[in-house]
Write a structure and sequence with these properties.
Helices cover 23% and strands 15% of the residues. It is α/β, with parallel strands linked by helices.
């Protein structure tokens, strides 16, 4: 097995990296806040762990293995698996691989990190993408797939999803992506991230810098209330966001701060800056 920080080679093979687990803080207050200036962050948790793979295909395979390992551990320990899905092209490819996975689908409970306020069948909806790529192809009970009702508008959808999450404890696994500007879910630079203690579970977003402007997002605090948080980062356009994160800049992705830290699975080329490979162990 390769040590942490080494790039995995391989077409269908990937490196098996160790994922950290830990407890999270108390349940935040529910409700829908007005979106305003970003709150200050709480005390720093464990540092991110960076796991480099050779290319997009290896990233997809490593992500698949991480998801199925997390599911097996959760089902063995608690009889159910609560996972939060991300949108985007890299997760889509991972979801397609999950179609043929061997697992107890009846134990899976699906949630979403964010959603666009569009009609339910709009192909730009994260829930529609996940359904087409994976969920409609497996036997997860319909009642255990918890889509965000973005079609009802940002405020109502955020309120309704906060109610859905009210009795949900820690997620077992949260999947997140990283935007070119450092955003994750629908938490964008210069907007509210919901990272402070007592932040609500959900945020109504009215002015996202990417279309559509109206969205719903889980807050950074709620995304961090998980046993495991895994970022999937691929594509050359992510160089600046990765460099900013590793340089300690205050980007939205850094606001998701579970006590045990996060794991970042990324293509090794994103750790090269100015022709020089960055140190991948730990994080600044």
């Amino acid at each position: 097995m390769k040590t942490e920080g080494e790039a995995c080679s391989g077409r269908e093979s990937s490196c098996a990296f160790k994922l950290q687990w830990g407890g999270i803080g108390p349940l935040p207050v529910h409700g829908v806040p007005a979106v305003g200036s970003r709150a200050m962050h709480s005390a720093a948790p464990a540092q991110p762990r960076w796991h480099a793979v050779a290319d997009e295909r290896a990233l997809q395979q490593a992500a698949l293995e991480a998801i199925l390992t997390s599911a097996a551990q959760a089902i063995a320990a608690r009889g159910r698996f609560h996972i939060v899905l991300a949108g985007g092209n890299t997760p889509r490819a991972v979801y397609q691989r999950l179609r043929t996975a061997s697992t107890d689908w009846s134990a899976w409970h699906i949630y979403f990190g964010d959603e666009r306020c569009l009609p339910a069948d709009d192909p730009e909806r994260n829930s529609r993408m996940a359904a087409d790529a994976w969920l409609d192809q497996v036997s997860i009970p319909t009642a255990q797939v918890h889509a965000i009702a973005g079609e009802s508008g940002a405020v109502q959808a955020a309120r309704s999803y906060a109610e859905v999450l009210h009795d949900v404890g820690e997620f077992d696994l949260v999947l997140l992506g990283l935007g070119e500007d450092g955003h994750t879910a629908s938490l964008f630079p210069g907007r509210e991230w919901g990272s402070a203690s007592g932040s609500p579970d959900t945020l109504a977003v009215f002015d996202a810098p990417k279309p559509p402007p109206r969205r719903v997002s889980l807050s950074a605090a709620r995304l961090a209330r998980a046993r495991q948080v895994l970022f999937l980062v691929g594509g050359d356009a992510k160089h600046r966001a990765v460099a900013d994160w590793r340089a300690g800049k205050d980007i939205p992705a850094r606001a998701v701060r579970p006590a045990a830290g996060v794991d970042v699975l990324l293509e090794s080329g994103l750790l090269v800056s100015g022709g020089r490979r960055l140190n991948v162990v730990g994080s600044s």
